[in-house]
UniProtKB/TrEMBL annotation:
Its cofactor is Mg(2+); Mn(2+). The keyword Nuclease applies. Residues 25-241 form the Endonuclease/exonuclease/phosphatase domain. Keywords: DNA damage, DNA repair, Endonuclease, Hydrolase, Magnesium, Metal-binding, Nuclease. It holds the Pfam family Exo_endo_phos. InterPro entries: Endo/exonu/phosph_ase_sf, Endo/exonuclease/phosphatase, TDP2-like. The lineage of its organism: Bacteria, Bacillati, Actinomycetota, Actinomycetes, Kitasatosporales. This is Endonuclease/exonuclease/phosphatase family protein. It comes from the Bacteria. SUPFAM superfamilies: DNase I-like (SSF56219). GO terms for molecular function: endonuclease activity. PANTHER family: TRAF AND TNF RECEPTOR-ASSOCIATED PROTEIN, TYROSYL-DNA PHOSPHODIESTERASE 2.
Length: 253
């Protein structure tokens, strides 16, 4: 499905009157088990300032695999990976990192442990918090994790925050609604490109999203289906999720 703001390109990274226009990508990369060269090409074509990754490599030589992806995407690693059981942040040299935190969430018996990759960064004249998440497959645990996420954002002490993640739930679900009640669901605010994010051959549901606090202006957000440099073949080969790309204007601070 195409949004009402179908454009071939999103605004590029720049600074306007102290505010920073930044490009944010959220992407579940399935531990780089698929075609890593396709994955890197997709990320490079999106020209992101920051990438909020889910399912980063987290086992044998995971740091080496994460470094490979950052290098071949023309980016650098910020934090996360195995230390958060999957969420990771990578970014461009435009990003100045103030602090990072790898958060492990309580583990329910028999379920995969989850975590958050968190950073406070400066991009241009803007100071912004970043959080990558991958919420539980089980409804009750997922809802609790959504609450923990919102609580963690309040503890950051940063006015402007961007969250990207695999929510494992459609927008009508109660965990997704819990997040969108306090944060902007960027696709809902200003849709651009494609909507559904899973699976890659025939996308049929939107379970991946970018959220932002209210002071951030959403210029466009969606799956970059028709962005120059991105092919449908690469999107299918890279992983089992489609990426979500947003252009956001963050006030100076």
């Amino acid at each position: 499905m195409l949004g009402r703001m179908v454009m071939r390109t999103l605004p590029g990274s720049r600074t306007e009157s102290g505010a920073a226009v930044i490009r944010v990508l959220s992407y579940n990369i399935r531990s780089m088990r698929d075609d890593r060269h396709s994955l890197a090409r997709v990320i490079r074509a999106c020209a992101p300032d920051v990438v909020l990754i889910q399912e980063a490599p987290r086992f044998f030589r995971w740091r080496k695999h994460a470094a490979w992806l950052a290098k071949h995407s023309d980016l650098v690693t910020i934090t996360g990976g195995a230390t958060t059981t999957g969420p990771m942040l990578i970014g461009s040299l435009r990003v100045t990192v103030e602090r990072t935190e790898d958060v492990l969430l309580p583990k329910a018996p028999g379920l995969h442990r989850r975590g958050f990759a968190v950073a406070v960064v400066r991009i241009g004249g803007a100071r912004v918090g970043l959080l990558s998440c991958h919420l539980s497959l089980r409804s009750d645990e997922r809802h609790a994790q959504a609450g923990m996420l919102l609580g963690r954002l309040k503890e950051l002490g940063v006015e402007h925050v961007i969250v990207g993640g695999d929510i494992n739930e459609r927008p009508e679900g109660r965990s997704f609604r819990r997040l969108s009640a306090e944060l902007q669901d960027c696709w809902a605010v200003r849709p651009w490109g494609g909507e559904n994010t899973y699976g890659t051959d025939a996308p049929h549901k939107r379970i991946d999203a970018i959220f932002a606090t209210g002071g951030i202006e959403v210029l466009g957000c969606g799956v970059p289906l028709d962005l120059p440099g991105i092919s449908r073949a690469d999107l299918r080969a890279a992983t089992d999720h489609l990426p979500v790309l947003a252009a956001l204007r963050v006030p100076a601070g």
